[in-house]
Each structure stands twice: as structure tokens, then as C-alpha cells.
Batch of 3 targets.
Target 1
Amino acid sequence: MHTIALNATHDPSARSWVASAQAEGTDFPIQNLPYAVFRRRGEDAARWRLGVAIGDQIVDLRAVAARAPWHGNAAQALQAAAADSRLNALMALGSEAASALRRALFDALREGAAQQAVTPADLVPQADAEYDVPARIGDYTDFYTSIHHATNIGRQFRPDQPLLPNYQWVPIGYHGRASSVVVSGQSFRRPVGQSMPPGSAQPQFGASRRLDIELELGVFIGAGNALGEPVPLDAAEDHVFGLCLLNDWSARDLQGWEYQPLGPFLSKNFATTVSPWVVTMEALAPYRTAWDRPQDHPQPLPYLESAHNRAAGAFDIQLQVDLSTPRMRSAGAADATICRTSYRHAYWTLAQMVTHHTVNGCNLQPGDLLGTGTLSGPTLDQAGALIELTLGGKQPLQLPDGEQRVFLEDGDRVTLRGWCERSGAARIGFGACAGEVLPARSI
Amino acid sequence: MHTIALNATHDPSARSWVASAQAEGTDFPIQNLPYAVFRRRGEDAARWRLGVAIGDQIVDLRAVAARAPWHGNAAQALQAAAADSRLNALMALGSEAASALRRALFDALREGAAQQAVTPADLVPQADAEYDVPARIGDYTDFYTSIHHATNIGRQFRPDQPLLPNYQWVPIGYHGRASSVVVSGQSFRRPVGQSMPPGSAQPQFGASRRLDIELELGVFIGAGNALGEPVPLDAAEDHVFGLCLLNDWSARDLQGWEYQPLGPFLSKNFATTVSPWVVTMEALAPYRTAWDRPQDHPQPLPYLESAHNRAAGAFDIQLQVDLSTPRMRSAGAADATICRTSYRHAYWTLAQMVTHHTVNGCNLQPGDLLGTGTLSGPTLDQAGALIELTLGGKQPLQLPDGEQRVFLEDGDRVTLRGWCERSGAARIGFGACAGEVLPARSI
């Protein structure tokens, strides 16, 4: 087991020579150092390259690599990162290489550093950048790790049996669509498809009327496993590179009609939005917390059980969903926060997701994406989907100025945010994961 | 609409200067010309390249391309094919480029051709070759297009409601796992996982005891569509490169416990086997047939309906499943054929699969793989899975020499075969899609 211990890079008193890294409320202090794929706005596609966030700047890793400032693991990781246009090559090197690169970047960005390994000329303002999906995603798997979400949404689809008998035993997951994963800021069309109105004798065809969000975290796989070789629970996190925010947009009317017996398909695969910034497992180490399975629930089967997973398998990541309507924007109003919760409420841990996924021999590859599933907390204001927040569409959300929402309307913009804070540790954040609904294509 | 018409390459009297292309019962006469990714046995990974089957030989397209024998579309397609180690680049060029290359290869291989564009030195014996998965598969989607299979298997999982209400309206599909798609000849371990024995209060963990096959065709996407842009029904086949055989191995005990509410996951994603040879849409043109929806069934919604789809949307592809047990092999016995059927029985056509998949704006990419779902025909001996053939495990299959099978045992080898024959057309085939079950990894 390779558990990342706290080290100098987590020191909450550390400061950077990049002044904005000390700005009040920044997501990107020197203790974070997340990765993204970026280019300066307007550069051509060949210029997509890797960057690391520091304050309101991006460290251009290709520029740093041109000077080859380091040796050993850090140098190998830097060269792999700089040679690829996505995070895959760096991810494939595994957690020790990522850790070495983090340490080298931390030392180079620290207040008092010589500004030779990383120089001010290597910085690109985030305000001048645009982003792409961080990795070439081979496969995308979405889990269902919040028992609160599973119960809330199960109540809509199966009032007689909201929580199915397998839920407390199996970390339920299913395969999603990799090709339609888009990056924050990219808008998408409202999907068209079949739905079955209550009481109707035949389905209708048209634009979805129950377009929803799902507040999730995305988990990028680092080192893969060979086909046929399961990953034991205490090695699972060695296969995780880092986390991002993920919005699994969902058309509930399409979903209700299509999902049996093989699961959601067109109701989900029209778009999935991820944040550009991937926060590494090492950056998240200070915010680990105990994983708790209520005593009156079934306890996990042995392959999903370990002392480490019990003691520190969960992460206290604060999550928030903000909604902006066209009317709010034309009135100059701020976004309305419609949900606040934490990843710590998940019923299954990140390590349990990885181990369950591979227990049958299924192979994960660098850059593969896992979604946690909608991370609803125990109370209704902690629900991460509109179908929960509005009790299946029966109780509209009240927005400022008398506006209401049941499901998303055209022009609505949803922004997910995530951050970690804890006494004795720095506050780090995930940036934003935003998307806007365009009208359906005419049919 | 670009419908491939019959042309000189379909002439059943055409012969090749490669003598084995005229052998009785060959899958690969000059009218077929399917593509694979191959190397000579023992060559290193950098040598994976594209080949075209002719008789018992493979035309090495990289060797042909080195002489740049053609002009225009055929030359462009050949250079794209030769520069890639998988079929993706050729697939991305679309159906007209593939058609031009087919015509050029046909002319070069025809009896009496000058043997300058393709020479005997460009041929590699199939007996000396090994194969890889034909494309880098971005996403793999599995459909469920046989109503006979859906009814038979629904009876096992939901005796009270075998065929769900959406089946006759929606071409049901779900996302599968791309990373574990393997090529014919690769064996795989019996998967381990959770199942819920009847009457038990808690799940058990161990090797699957109900390991099954699924006889399917695989559909490789050629030219893709942009995110947000649906593919109309009469353009759908322009986005298909060709077909292969596909065995969607399934662990029924894992499936029964895990599949609700999000669909099959670990019960399917441990291995999916495809044949190395991809038969192009143009080669399949002579075997088109009318698509028939029984009058007393719901007729398709308009987006899934067209005159062309009615007249010629189905394909009469003969399919067969052969089983070989260790005891049969040690006795020198031939494989036992356990199923014979045809793709013409499918409830939804290939074009309907593509159009439904994209109607919500989902983007398909070159090299993506669609499975048809298990292609069971109307009678029980036409069923493409053991769970159907054995009535859910209650009626064992009788094999030669008194041996029986309910589900697969370790060492069992399953081979799928497919071919087309029709009066006035050549007989063409798909080769073999074989896999062997290895014992489960010890736990």
C-alpha cells in the first residue's frame, strides 16, 4: 500500500512568489497545483499543452520542460507531461512520478525560490486561456455512490422500492459515453428523444422537458491494471491520478422510458461536463476522513473492506451547485446556490469503486474516467439533482425575483464548484465546472 | 442517401490470380476483401499493419502502399490505411474512399491482372499471421435488437414481464467497455464477483458459475458525426465501415444481481471477443433483404422509418456457434454446432441503431464499435446464448459422447462463424471468432 503522507507540500504556511496564490479565497494556492490542458485563447489545436494552476496563473509545463531543470523522477514526469497534449502520459507513470513532479514544482514556485526552474515568463494568465478535456478518455464509468441520491431518485422511478436490494452490497456502476465528455464552458443542445407521458398509449418524440443536472466528482485513472488482474483495495488509490468536478446532465423523461432493462443511454450520453482542473490525490491528502458504514447496514464483503479504507478512505470535499437563468443575467443578479454538500457522505469510497470495477479482471487504463454518481447528502438541500430538489418536479425551486425552476430551461447555466478546507491545512479548490443549455435542434 | 449499388466487385464469376480465393467454401473470395490488423507471428508491436484477406493469404497494404500504385480516392485511402496501425484512419475517410480502395484491390487481384499494383510478394499466408483488435475503439455500445433474445432472457430475469413495454418502440442499447475488447484467439479468465443465490440472505463472492456466450455481430463506425448533429435514417449506413463477429461473454449470476437499476456492468466487461476480419458494407450489399415489422406490432416512430430501410435495411448473414470441450479435443472430436441462425431476424436494423444512437446529438467516432445484441432467431435452436438454449440452465445441452453443458466450463472453446450466400452472388464469410475460458484467478 502506498498511502500519500502529509509532507512539505501540504504546509499551510507555505507561500509562492506568484502573489495571486496568496489571494483570499483562491482555489489555487501553492498547496494545490492541479493540472489542466490549456492553450492561449485563439492558438491552434497543435498548441494544446499541460499547465499547472498557481493563483490566477498557469505554469506552462512545455515552456518549463524546454529548460529541463530537474533530474530523476521529476524530470521524467515533466518530459512525459510536456510531450503529450493531454494528461495521459503523465497519468501512466503512476503516483510516485506525479508526486516527484509536484514536489519539484512546489519548490520552484515557493517564495524565495530562485525563479530558474520556473520563471515568470513560463506563466500564462488564466484569464487568457482556454481549456480542453484533460485526458483522452478511453472509457468512462459512472457510479452511484450516494445512498441518499439512490433513495431519492429511486422514489421517482420505483415508488414501491426506492432502494434496490443490491445497493448496500454492490458499488453500483455502469458504462457511460466517453466521446461526449466536454470541458467546462462548452454549451450543448437540449437533447431530443422518446419519452412516455403518464397515461399515454404510445411514446412521444421531441425535446426533453425534464433536463436535469447531476453533481458529481470525476476520478481520473493514473497507472492502469492488466486485463485479468484485479486491484486489491489497499492498492486502489495508487491507480488514481486525481479528481475533477463532473456534471452528468440527464434527461429524466428520456431516462424513465429507456432505462429498463439495460440502464440509462440517450438520457445521459448527449453531454457530460468536466472541470478543466484535475486535483491530484496528493493535494487531497489533508482532507481525508474516516469512512463510516452505519452499524445497522450490511458491512462490505471482504474484498471491499480494509482498515485503511475505514480510517481514511473518504474525502471531505465541499461541493456547491449554482444556477444562473437568462433573466438573472439580464438583471445583473448573482448566481443562485441551489445545493451545498460534501463528498464525505458517499456510501462507497473511491478505493471501493476502483477495486469493485476490477474484481472481475476488467482493465482500467491511464486517462479513464470514473464518476462518483450524484453526491447528494442526507438532507434535501444537499441533493445534487433537480429531480431530488424539486421532489420529482412537484415543488419548484424558488429563485430570486420570484422566478421558479423545476427542470432546466434554455439558456440556464449551471456551475459546479468544489473545495477543501480544514483546520491546520490550506484551503484548495477545483475551479468551476460550467455548462449552458442551448435550445434543442429543430426536428 | 448513398446506397451501395451492386457493381463489378460483386460479380460472382470473378476469379483471382490467388488460387486459394477459388477454393471450395473459402470465406475470402475476391468478392469479399475484408480488412484486418495483422503481423507475421513473432514480429514486434511496431509491425501491426493493415491487411486484406484473399483466399488463404493476406495482402499487406503497407507493402502495396510503398509502391503507391494508384491515384485519387483509392490512393488516398491506401496511404491512410498504410500509415496507421489500426483501421481508424481508413474508417474516418468514409464510404466512398473505402469503395475506391475496394475497387482498386479487386482489379489488382483479378485473374489476368498485371500483378504490378499487388504482387505475389505482397502476400502473407494467413497461417503465418496473428491479429489484433481491428480498430482503436473509442466507445463500445451494445444493442439488444433480437426480440427473440429479449423475450427469452427476459423470461429468466423477469418471469412476470419478459418483454418490457419500451422494447417495441426503442432500439434498446447501453454502453459497454472498450478496454476489454479482445481479438479472436485470446483466452480469458472466468470472472469473479458477487452473486445472490436464490433464497440466500446475503450475496456470495466467487468465480461465476453461469458463464455464457452471446452471438452478435459487431458494427464498426466509419465517418463520425459531430456532437449535437443527429444522423438521419437514410444517411446512417454512410457512417458504417463494416461488420465483424462478436461474442459478448456474460456471467449470468453476476448479471442477475448487479443489473438493476443501471444495467449490466461486471457481468459483461471482463472480455468481449471480436473477429479479426471486418467485412465492409459494400461487400455485404448482395445479401440485403427487406426489413419486416409484424403488422400487429407498433410501427416505428418517424425518425426510425424509411422506404429504403423497409426495402433493404436487413442483412441475411448466416451465423453459427460451435463449442469444443477439453474432452472433445482430447478425443479428437470435431466441434459441436449448438446454434444456427441469421441476422435477418433482428427486430431493429443496423441503420436504426445508428440513427437512434445519435438522435439526441450523441457523437459517434471512426472506430467506435456497436454490438447488435444476441442474434437469437425465432426458434430455440436459433438461440445465441446458453441461458436460452438450456432454458435458464434447466435443460442441459447434449454434446457428443454423452457429455453435457449448461453453462461454460473451464477449457471450453467457443467459435462463432458467419457467412452470406445467395443465388446469383458469391459466398463470402467472416472467418472465425474464437475464445477459450481459463480458470478463475484464485481469490
Note: The longest helix of chain B spans residues 95-109.
Target 2
Amino acid sequence: MKITPISGFPEYLPAERIVEQHFLDIIRETFELHGFPSIETRAVEPVDRLLGKGGDADKEIYGVSRLAGDETADAELGLHFDLTVPFARYVLENAGHLAFPFRRHQVQKVWRGERPQEGRYREFTQADIDVVDVGELAPHFEAELPLVMAEVFSRLPIGQMVIQVNNRKIPEGFYLGIGVTDVIGTLRIVDKLDKIGPARVADLLVESGLTREQADQCLALAAIRTEDLSFADRVRELGVSHPVLDEGLDALSRVISSGMANAPGALVADLRIARGLDYYTGTVYETQLVGHEAWGSFCSGGRYDSLASDGKTTYPGVGISIGVSRLLGLLLGHQMLRASRSTPACVLVAVNDEESRPTSTRVATALRARGIPCEVAPKPAKFGKQIRYAERRGIPYVWFPGAGVAADGAGDRPGDQVKDIRSGEQVDADASTWAPPAEDLHPQILRSEA
Amino acid sequence: MKITPISGFPEYLPAERIVEQHFLDIIRETFELHGFPSIETRAVEPVDRLLGKGGDADKEIYGVSRLAGDETADAELGLHFDLTVPFARYVLENAGHLAFPFRRHQVQKVWRGERPQEGRYREFTQADIDVVDVGELAPHFEAELPLVMAEVFSRLPIGQMVIQVNNRKIPEGFYLGIGVTDVIGTLRIVDKLDKIGPARVADLLVESGLTREQADQCLALAAIRTEDLSFADRVRELGVSHPVLDEGLDALSRVISSGMANAPGALVADLRIARGLDYYTGTVYETQLVGHEAWGSFCSGGRYDSLASDGKTTYPGVGISIGVSRLLGLLLGHQMLRASRSTPACVLVAVNDEESRPTSTRVATALRARGIPCEVAPKPAKFGKQIRYAERRGIPYVWFPGAGVAADGAGDRPGDQVKDIRSGEQVDADASTWAPPAEDLHPQILRSEA
């Protein structure tokens, strides 16, 4: 049977997976520091739920059914294409067991039958945080969530990430203020700015019924981007006023001023950001890696007035999601990151001969008891060959049982030695006390600007 | 749309998920201490590969296809039902990039369309370690792998796990030695011992063509179970000899004696264990939780002479797999484990009024900078209500900014206080120096024998 990769389903070699694990560890650790417990949802949802939510009717859903299927009575199932639809269902299903406002993080794979391309996969990992409440959701959560993500990014070995924030009430109020009533239609056209440029957007707006002057005003609004609160003055300079616009400006000012106080430089007000036209109702977020803006957004989200609803109760929420696979795929694909070794093992314990393997195993056990990952050599080959075994995997130390000078007193077993195979330095060592430098204990993630 | 759980697809509440995370953390940490790097494989494999390997033709495979399917040219895909078939494919696909002997661990979900029942799921997590080599695999790996699992179990908050070990060459050589040539057929009947008992097994063996004496000998062999090396003498007392039997006894002696030296009590020789009749060729493992033997095996595996083959090269391997979801489902289902709280947050920082939220956020930031997970209260409610918010989630500490006595000197902001809401004790505290007792920093996993 011929073996070929399946397009859109990436797999990593062990050293790449170490980079991925490092990212996932930092993401989880930061989410937990901010008090977001983890949940996981099943991979499948009923297809009618997948089709009914999430806005885009063209999500390419993977259906799932037993090959030996005989359960015509069962609901048709599909793999989830994001973590928001399953989370909304989980909240409704478990509302009686959850304490609200309910915070959670969720890091799982999702599947989309899209056309694969650079940074676009059919199976990929997302890392989400959301806060959901019953009936009403306090606005300060819209300021809190991007700060959590800013902390994640500051701890990852990547360049500077900038979270661009807008509030949907700003374009909405502004459009109403200049007499444009088709807010969604207008937003949908302005949202094409990155793709087709301002001249073409202006034409499309005029085609849709706006005056040339209204179109120019829409473009002027979308061009405002500030790192501080001056965006509000710049909007007011356009001479438009509307109560919904004021609401939006106040809300965005609260988010940006919290960013300035807690994570200077991490958040900018960018009035072009629209996102998820059908479900976001307040703050919206997108995130770019500085210097790689063309790669698009790696972390997006916003506020929903109705994340979930069971007909009687409505659950508003706010959430942000990191596209982990997209980010990693691009960073690894452009050789911008690598792991210092392809195994967690820090030490290879050499084996003198097969009979003395138990001695080597005892050394390994002593090292592991103090948290030092290690491996016993697979064969009692010549030491040069055992060193090459370590070298090929990037294991920095090789331990030689009995290679040292015998201690004083007759009958004592000779001591051990350990060699740093990078420098060649070999020293006496005792497995009950020796420790590597902290930076060698676990694989390092090394960065190089491509 | 009515919301109902999908049978066989379990989901956890946040507190249960904390128990699962604890298990997965210990499993990964132990695997890494033993030098097993992680890999993950895609969730899908070509259906013909899933059907062709793994032995059981009756694995209930879930097929996967795009609802908007138009790719008739693409291979038919299915969700993997274990991690061995994907690993074997991964080894063949990446052989040129891997260093052999290749060790890896893999912790992922798998899917089987089986009839759901207690401890049997349609979506569940397995945690595997394997070592695979090219052409030949050194036998010491068969002794090493169960020691890794024994260390995992010793660090989990569960009762005693006993790994039962056998070597397939023992029954094979023994059967040949008493003149029984249908080894697989005989093993298949003896394998029913747990289900139908010795009398019925003896009858079936006689029906299959064995003499009553041969049948009794088979049962006598299967009854041997020892914690030390005496199993070999007990086999020899049965008066049977065959070179393959001797090979098997020597191999099993090496595994058990390594267990006695490195993990006393964790391994037993149990000559009844057969497992995976079609593919295991040497050592085989099963694992029982002492006192809950009826729950069956939680950790099984063995040696394959041909884990994978591309026609030219054969890759022998040895592997063991923990059924994480099965184990957790039973322990949680029988209330034998619980988490001390439903959130990672150790501290809730109270909010005096909405205007002073930034003060509370600064406290939280200072605590997080020193690794203390915390959350800022959602509302500036009465303190009693904020304390109840913490209580409901099991958060042990509530922090009150400015509740302390003002420091000396005019204009100083009053200091903070922190309350242990379990004891009610409230003391002065400084966010840049205060730390909880170590056992409160992260949720504890609490055990109760059911």
C-alpha cells in the first residue's frame, strides 16, 4: 500500500512537535494563570447544529458515519469546524452545573474541508478563551480577554503581535449618523479594504447606493488607527454624531485604555476591523504579527450578545481564539523556529556491556528521580557510536558509568563521568547530585528571523 | 433544537477535566523523563489501511467525508481506532527522517463505533509508548516499557496497578512440547478462561481435538502466576520441554527480574495472558487495578516482530497503551476521585467598585507574575457575594485591595488583606510577596475509596 501524506492534514516530526508542545504549554499556563479552566468537547456535533450556527453557511463540514452503519435512528454527525459552536452547546447542555459568569479555555483540533494552502489546513488546532454569562455580560470582560492573549504572545518566542480592536457600534453609529441605513451591507464592502483597496471599495459603496461623499466618509473612518485614545477625537473630527457611535467610542476607549495600562503597545484601536458580520455585536479583535501583516490574523474574536440561547435564557459572551496550527505552520515553514533537540532526553546513559545494563538503568533512575529526563543506550556499542546516537538526537550529555577514578578504599566501585558532547568536556559525576545547567534540562526553542 | 448527550461521547465538567489533566500531565511527564518524545498523527487514515491492519476485522470504523463532497478522486478516509496503525504508517512515511531505534509517545483521541457501555466509549483517549527498530529489536526494550508504565501508575492517585506479563513463546513451546500443533486455535480457547472458567475451557479444548490430559496441561500452564522467577520452575515441574518454551521462559525471566530490581511488586508473571493473537510475537502485557480486577485491563500491549513493513524493510516494535478514558471514566463514575476546585484560580481578587477595577487588576498581575493563578471578581458586589463567588468554584483565597491598615506616613494607600475563606482567617498581605501554601497553588486531586 503506497504511503502518501493527505493534503491539509499536517503532521510534525518529533523536533517540530517539541516546538508545538512549547506553544501549547505556554498557552495553557497563561490561560490558567488568568483563571480559565479547561474543557474539551467531543469531536462530533449533530450536523443540523453545525449548519445552523457559526454564520458561514459555506463551512466545509466533514460528516462522520459508521462504515458498518445500521443506526438510521441516530442523528447525523459531523466533525466540529470551530470550538465556539460546541462551547455554546456545552453551555446549554450543562447550564445547571456551571457557575456564571463562566470562563473556560479550550484547546482542540477542528476540521474543515477547505482547499488546503499555505497556513490553511483541513485539520488544525485552535486555542480559545471565552467568558459567558446569563442575560447580561459586564463590559470589562471585553477589555480583559485581549490582555490574556497579549500575555500569551509576550511569552511565546515570536516577534511582536499587535491586537487590533474595534467596536461594531462605531461603524454602525457612524453609518447611521451619515444617513446610511444598510449597516451590514456597507460593512461587508468596507471589509474588503485589505483585498481590493480603497478606490475599489469606494466605487462599490457608490454602486450600492451611497453618495460619493458618504463613501469617502466610510473610508475615512476605516483609516483611523491609533495606539492611544486619540482615535475618538479623530472620529469626531469627521463631524458625525450618533448615540450608538458615542457608545462604541466609549466602549473602545475602555478597552484601549486598559491595554495602555496593562500591556503597553499590545493593543491598537483599528476602526477597519469588522469580522464575523452576522454574530459579533460589540468589541471585535484581530491580530497581526508585526512584519508579517500579509499572513493575516492569528487571533480573532469578539463579543456576541447571544452566544447561546435555549429560547428562554440568552447567554451573551466574549471570546478570542488563537489559530495555533496556522501560526506554527508559517513559523516552522519559514524556518523561523526550531527545537534544540528532537527528544526530551537530556542525558544518554552509556552501556558498557549488556551484563551491566542494570547499572546504567540505576543511574538513569537516579537522574529521573531528580527530574532529569534520560535514556539508556540501546546497545553496548563502542563509546564513539553511543556518542553519535546522542548527537543525532541532540542529547547534550552522555553518562559513562564506572569511567571515573575509583574512590578511596578497596572494593569501591569506580565513580562515573559525564561528557558534554558539544564541548567534549568530561568530568566526574554522581547521579545522586549532578544536574545539567537549567537551559539544558529541557529542549530549547531557538528563533531565527527568516 | 433539543440538546441531548451523544451516547459514547463523554464530556467532562471543569472539575472532572482537572482530574483528567492531572492524569495526562503525569503520563506525559513520566514518558518524557524516560526519553520518549511526543508525536501526534492526523485523526484520519485511508480506510483501506484501517481495515488492513490491527487484527480485528470487526473494529467499528467511522468513515469521514465532506458533506459538500466532490472529491471522488480522493482516498476514502476514516477516523483512527487506535494509535498503533497510524504510528506504523508514520514510521514508514518518515523513516528517512527518524533515528532508529525510534522511541515515541502519543496521547490522542481515537474513535470506535462500538456499542457504548460502562467504561467503553466511542471517543476516548489512549496514551501509548512504543520503541521500533529496523530489522531487529533488542529484547531489553520488552523489560523497559512496563517499567515506564509502572512509574506512571505509582505517581497517579489510584490504587495499586499490577502489570501481568507473559511471553507468547511460553504457551507456543509448551503446546508444541505436549504435541498440540494448532497453537493459535488452542490459545484462542484458553484466552476465554476469565469469561467461561476452566471446566468449560477444558471441554472446548477436548472438542477441538486435544486429549483430556493435554487440556489439563494447558490449564495447568495458564494457572501459573508468580511475583518472582519461580514461574519457570513451576512450568518445568509440568514435565514439558521444548526449545521455544525455553526461549520464552528466559525472555520472561529477564522482564520479571528487571521488574523485581526496579519496581518491586509492579510486575507479575502470569502465563494466562494471551492478547492480540494475530500480531504479538513475544512479551505481552495486561494491567489490572488491584481490588477491581473485574474492570479488566487498563494498560496492554506487547512485542510485534513486524510493526510495519514496506516490503523491503521490516520494523519490529514493542509498545504499551494506557486506556486513559476507560480508567478515568470508572474512577470518576464511582466517585473515587475528585478535584479540590473547578478552576485553576487560587485567588479571587475582590473589586471595591467598578472605578477601582484597575487596582484589583494590578494586584492580579502582581500575583500572576509570581505564578499564582487568579481571577478578578466579575462585579463590585457586597463582599459576602464576592466570597460566595469564590466558594462556589472552590477558590480558596479572596484578596481585598485596600482592606488593611494604612502604612505609616500620610498619603500612603492602605495595604491589602487576604482571606482564607475555608478558615475565615484574614491577614495583611502584599501582592509582591504573599504566596499560598504549596498545596493550595494548584487544584488538588482527592481520593476516596468507593
Note: Chain A touches chain B through 90 residues (CB under 8 Å).
Target 3
Amino acid sequence: MIKIKTWGKLALVGLTAATLVACGGSEEKETAKVEKKAEVINWKMVTTWPKNFPGLGTGAENLAKSINEMSNGRINVKVYAAGELVPALEVFDAVSRGTAQMGHGAAYYWKGKAPAAQFFTAVPFGFTAQEINSWIHHGGGLKLWEEIYAPFNLIPMAAGNTGVQMGGWFNKEINSLEDFQGLKMRIPGLGGEVLKKVGGTPINLPGGEIFTSLQTGAIDATEWVGPYNDLAFGLYKAAKFYYYPGWHEPGSTMEALYNKEAFEALPKDLQLIVRAATRQANAEMLDEFTALNNSALQTLINEHNVTLKPFPDDVLSALKKASTETLEEVAAADPMSQKVYDSFKEFGAKVRAWHEVSERAYINARELE
Amino acid sequence: MIKIKTWGKLALVGLTAATLVACGGSEEKETAKVEKKAEVINWKMVTTWPKNFPGLGTGAENLAKSINEMSNGRINVKVYAAGELVPALEVFDAVSRGTAQMGHGAAYYWKGKAPAAQFFTAVPFGFTAQEINSWIHHGGGLKLWEEIYAPFNLIPMAAGNTGVQMGGWFNKEINSLEDFQGLKMRIPGLGGEVLKKVGGTPINLPGGEIFTSLQTGAIDATEWVGPYNDLAFGLYKAAKFYYYPGWHEPGSTMEALYNKEAFEALPKDLQLIVRAATRQANAEMLDEFTALNNSALQTLINEHNVTLKPFPDDVLSALKKASTETLEEVAAADPMSQKVYDSFKEFGAKVRAWHEVSERAYINARELE
């Protein structure tokens, strides 16, 4: 293709035939060089994150930087925070139609378009970070995820993980299942469905409205991410709080979305660079959250008087039962969700059996006196 | 530089006198082309793994393939199994002196040269895979690891993780600490030191001699990796065995070693490609082991009559106490080890506090009835 273009341009230069013959090689080179310069692939990355949002937003920024630098500038990705080019929840559509060539967000935001997508962020009482990564990359997960997104002209990849998210902030203690009765809690996705099953009222609010809603008492509780993000978000200032460990997002995967045509138009090496940069971002975010959550948690407890409490075992058991019912219902409502749920269950049974004698046995043995 | 040359030549295009110059340019281009061809960077990767060794050896192969493909052939890495170019335990020296430009193995193999290196593979009752990755990439670990290797002209990177390794294969049940008395067990590194403290006899054998030693009774027990590798290695055939969960290598990091001059001679984009390919390999191996260990474990139990047993809690407690003593001794013997141990302890206290309310709380809550 380059060659054809070259000859086309040479014809326009208007040189004599002899010159062409004599210098054809040289010209071809020149033009190839000029073309190479013109060939910088300018990509837009739209994200669901506020500007400079710690961990999630900065993870997207770092991914763009990696792609730009690893490609030596052949790809130039410019990142847009939520609302800068399109609103947060239009990222999926914007990349689908090619307004942007890539996006960064989380798959469960798109459950209205593809209910099965939510299995690829987090499932209540489902996979930990290590488990969901293994399912996606070695358990058939990615193939299913690609199948879900193909009709939308999109290619998904795992692009970050928060680890176990906290169960949330509550303005009262949760001592029994009855304490969930009528509880108005900001909790999106599958976790919200589970809360509804145990008598609560899930409320879906964008991040920017959480603080005020807590302060005015419009909601009694909220989940957000984990100590690192929750501290940065200042939630502890909104009321006196009890802070509980998590059950509903035990290893939330962030996603990079690529416009299928844009991705497939890349030469093979750039495709592999994009894939490796994304995989690197996926690992990097978990490493960051794992390192930074504890200091933030200590600050919340020691400087901001947040009370850390565990849910009682019978509450967790009831939430677990309600979670299984919720997943069964989601699966029954949609053939693709059923297919993904079957894979999730099969892989889940195996990986839990393995982690019973490895991760879990070890992490408990380590705490023995 | 490219830009200057290009415009310089374009200015001459079409002029008779300059045609010669332009044609000279052609010559120069050809030469540049030849040079470019000659510029393929041929690297050798020596490894500590037998040819086609599942997970660890194939992980090294995949890393080479990624570098080759992501660089579009600008780097060409050829992989050598243990013994093909240098013996397994000469990988460190071979890369240090530049016989090979990179290596793949595990840092604790080099404890004779740099005792502090062993903290970067696995520590008894130390970090899980998720924790060691976070320490290395976000807790100051990598900087220390680089400091240890700098005098050897080497740059280390994390390049794979097995997850929690099994505690090993025993020809009798371990019901109390007394059962370790006089037990001859193949167990290298810090785990071996700990075994010695509780009365056992650690024996260091290369992989190839384990099977026969078990069969003849020269050793009573061995650890290797985990079900996926142990099944492939056929250990279950050597005797009637009890198989125990692990404590001594709770998330073993494999390493890629780069010759410092070779790595630093790469242009920036290739350096970043090598780093991302290595980070990808690091994640990929853990995903693979996490996905494949369970089936192998089930095969061992159900088809090969291996008995899976937990160590009693008091045995684990004693091993943990002996582990801490061992680490204190290693640290006291060498200033660099002390520096690394201090970082390990500080990060460890924080990450365990966080995992107490996240990973551990969750993984236990998930198993509630």
C-alpha cells in the first residue's frame, strides 16, 4: 500500500521518467518517511472517571501513557475525564460508534445494554481479584466477554482491579438482618439487587451526589470503593459512620473498551503493545490499591473516628443466600447471562476448591498464634 | 534527526545536479536499510527450567515471544533451557557477564551471592502473590531488589508467580512437631532452614534427582511446586504419599534478569516494551496456575490415591515461630538483608492489617453456611 501511494505521489512531483528510474528507490524511502509521520494514530480515550480520580482515573491515564510511549508515538491516546467529551455513562456508546477509539470504565455500568456484562466487574460472594483474573485469562471468561461486546463493535479487556471493596458506610450498626429493613443505601448493580432481597432500598446515585445525600439523610448508607478512594472522597465528613468489610464487590475489574475497527486496523505489533499495556495497567492498579488501602484505613479510624465493624455471620450468610438467588434470576432472564453464569459457576467451584487448600488455608494459618 | 534528513533530500528533488546527490541519498538509504537489518538486537535468554517445563518454563518462552512480537522483530530473544547454554544455577553469572542478555529463574537461587535476594522469591509465612506484587511495585521492593543486583550488572523484574505452593509430599502423616524429627526432606532456601529448626534435615536436590531419591527412601519427603507441576512431574508414582498445604512459599515470584548494559542500550520504547512484556508474563503465570491447579489436585486425589491432609494448627504455629527466628538470623548476618527485611516487615504489617478486613475477611465470609 505504501508503495502504491509512493508512486502516486512521485507522479505528482512531475519529474522526468529518467529521474524516476534513477531515484525511485530514494523517493520511495522519502515518501515512506513522510507517510510514517502522517500515520500517527490519534486515539481518544473516554472514561467514566472524574478528572484525576485516584487509582481508577489515574490508572486510565497511565494506560494511555504506556501505549503512547511503548508505541514510540505511533499511537497517541488523549484521555478525557467523564463529561469532557461524553458523560460517564455514554462511554460504551461513544466507543461503540467510534466517537472515541477506546474507553475506560467498568462492565457493570452497561448492564442495561448487556446484562451479562456485569459478571465481568464483580459478583457478590464471587471471585477475588486473583480469581477473576484467572477466569478471564485462563478460564474462558475473556472469550465470553468478547462475545457479549462483539455486537456493539467493541473489544473488552481487563484494565485494573481494586481488590476487595469495602461493604460500605452506615449511619447505624448492623447487628441483624432486621437492620437492613427500609435502609436506604446507595449501592448499584447486583449488590443493590441483593440488598433489596433482604429488605433494603437500593438507590443509584452518581458519585458526585453521595456526600450531600448522606449529609441530608436522604440515604442512610453508601458503598463506594475502599479506604484509599473513600478517604480521598471525604465520605467520613458527611456523618458519624460505621464502616464494614465487603461482600458485594470482592475484586472489581475495571475494563478497557476498544472500538473493534480501530483496534483491528492496527498492525500486529501495535495490537500486542495495546494488549500488554492494558494487562500491565490491570496488574498495576491492584498493586497500588493493595499498597495504599491500609494507610487510608488507619487514617479513617485514627484521625476521623470511623468505627470499623464486621457484619455478624448470620447477616453474611443471609446476604450470601440472597446473592445466589439474585444471580439465578439474572441468569434465567437472558440466555447470554445464563451462559456466562454457567462458566462463572463451573470455574468458581474449581478455583474455590483450590483456594480452600492454598490461599484460604494459608492466609488463616498465617494468623495462628 | 529523521525529519532533517527527509527535508534536506526533498529540497533536492527534481534538480539535475542534485539528482546525483539524491541518488547518493538512495545509497545512503540502502545502507540505512542494511544497518536497520543489522540492528536486530539478538538476545539470548538462559533459564533455570527444564525444556518445556509447564508454567515456569513455558512462561519464560511466552515472555520471549511477547518481546519479539511487540518489538516487531527489533529484538529477537532465543530461549535456552537449563543446560543448553549454561547449567540452571549459572544463569545469574551468565547474564551478569553478558554471555546471555537475559535470564529467567527465581531470586532465591542466588542466595549464595546475595543473601537478600531470597526475600524476592518467597518467605515462609510471608507475602501471598498479591502482596509480594504490591510490595515489589508499590512498596519499595523493586528499588531494593535493583540495589542488590546492581553490583552484578543486573536488573531484576518480577516475571511470574505460582501462587501458594504446596507444603509437600510426605511418606507418613505429620501429626505433631515430633514427626519432623530426623525427617529428611528436599526443601531448599528459607523453608529448609525452618525445617532444620524444628528438627528435620533439609536436603537440597535438583529436580531431576527427587523422584529416585523418594523411591529409594533416600529422602522421606519433598516439596516441589503445586498440583499442576507436581502431577506433571509424576511424584505421586514414587511412593504412597500424604500431600500437605503450604506455608513456606506462599506466593513465589519468578524473576527475569536483564544484563544492565544490554537493557540500557535499548531505546526507551524497547525498554518499556520489555518491562510491559515482563509484567504481563508476571500476571499471566499466576492466572495460569490459579486456573489449572485444581484439576491437577483432583486428579492426584481421585486417580492416584494421594491423601490430602492439613498440618495440625500447633505444627503450623511452631513452623511460624521458627520462620520468624530464621528471618531474624538471615537479617542479622548481612546489612542488605536487614534493610530488605525491615521493608518486608513494615510493608507486611500494613498489608496484613488491610487483608485482615479485605481478602481474609471475605474469603472466610464466602465459606459461611
Note: The CA atoms of residues 347 and 353 of chain B lie 10 Å apart.
